[in-house]
Write a structure and sequence with these properties.
Layout lengths: L3 E5 L4 H15 L9 H11 L3 E4 L9 H14 L3 E3 L1 E2 L7 H11 L4 E3 L14 H9 L4 E3 L15 H10 L5 E3 L8 H7 L6 E3 L4 H4 L1 H11 L4 E2 L9 H9 L5 H16 L3
Helix pairs in contact: 2-10, 3-4, 7-9
């Protein structure tokens, strides 16, 4: 079965060591490859992952062009990697950045409300969402808690619900099954919005029957396999998903069909 990991991270060789050390220290967590492009490719190969989707984040306006250009180079040079683009939410000329993402052939836009310091349902950011939706790009949001931050968080389920309702019809993916450590609340509130979710940093914590119940709430046609590598081992995440005991059709949807549809892959 083809496996697509819809939510991974890596950095330039020059930045990787410092970024991994800083993020690991701030969150008190381990990492499972060195944070480089090569490290991600090796990890995926060892786990049997066929395609990994990289999710970069700009934490200030000046990073937009540099990061998106790098992401396009990574995508061009590595057959087993695809990349989303990034826009700092309060970028003055956000339309130009979205146009760049489209021109570069990047596959969507990733947001992290904690790292980027904005509320997911802040109406000041809505014109940016509208521009991305108009361009036909999916938006993936970190949702729920974050080990490096304290509550209240910027994308808890009620705020995700508000934004998703306001943008009904846009392609929205709520990472971490709709809310990291808010999994059950998200599964009760958010499926009615029609958004999708990924399993990043969540399947291996939920496991078994709990994970199966969560996935059934969402429906396998709206769940994407994802790991948050390098913060979680990709092979462990695959095994965790199998522990849910789903039907073969559900695994086909989660491991590759849903991602192929969103990424417009043949």
């Amino acid at each position: 079965m083809r496996i697509i990991d819809f939510h991974t991270h890596c950095y330039t060789d020059a930045l990787a060591e410092r970024a991994m050390r800083k993020l690991a220290e701030s969150g008190g967590i381990a990492y499972y490859h060195d944070g480089t492009v090569r490290g991600l490719i090796r990890s995926a190969s060892d786990a049997g992952v066929d395609l990994s989707v990289v999710m970069p984040i700009a934490t200030k306006e000046s990073q937009n062009t540099t990061i998106n250009t790098w992401a396009a180079e990574v995508q061009e040079e590595n057959d087993s990697l695809l990349c989303f683009g990034t826009v700092y939410p309060f970028t003055s000329d956000y339309k130009a950045v979205v146009a760049q993402i489209v021109e570069l052939g990047l596959k969507g836009v990733k947001f992290h409300p904690e790292y980027q310091s904005f509320h997911i349902d802040d109406r000041a950011v809505y014109p940016l969402y509208e521009e991305i939706a108009k361009a036909g790009l999916p938006m993936l949001f970190h949702t729920g808690g974050d080990v490096a931050y304290k509550p209240p968080f910027h994308a808890e389920p009620k705020a995700v619900y508000q934004m998703a309702t306001d943008f009904a019809g846009a392609t929205i993916v709520a990472a971490h099954v709709g809310g990291y450590e808010f999994w059950d609340e998200a599964a009760e509130l958010l499926p009615q919005t029609g958004i999708l979710v990924d399993l990043a940093a969540s399947a291996e914590q939920l496991q078994g029957e709990h994970l199966r119940r969560i996935i059934e709430k969402w429906g396998s046609e709206r769940v994407l396999f994802a790991t948050d590598s390098p913060w979680f081992p990709q092979k462990l995440c695959i095994d965790a998903l199998y522990s849910a005991g789903l039907r073969e059709e559900d695994y086909e949807n989660i491991f590759h069909r849903n991602a192929e549809r969103l990424l417009k892959l043949g």
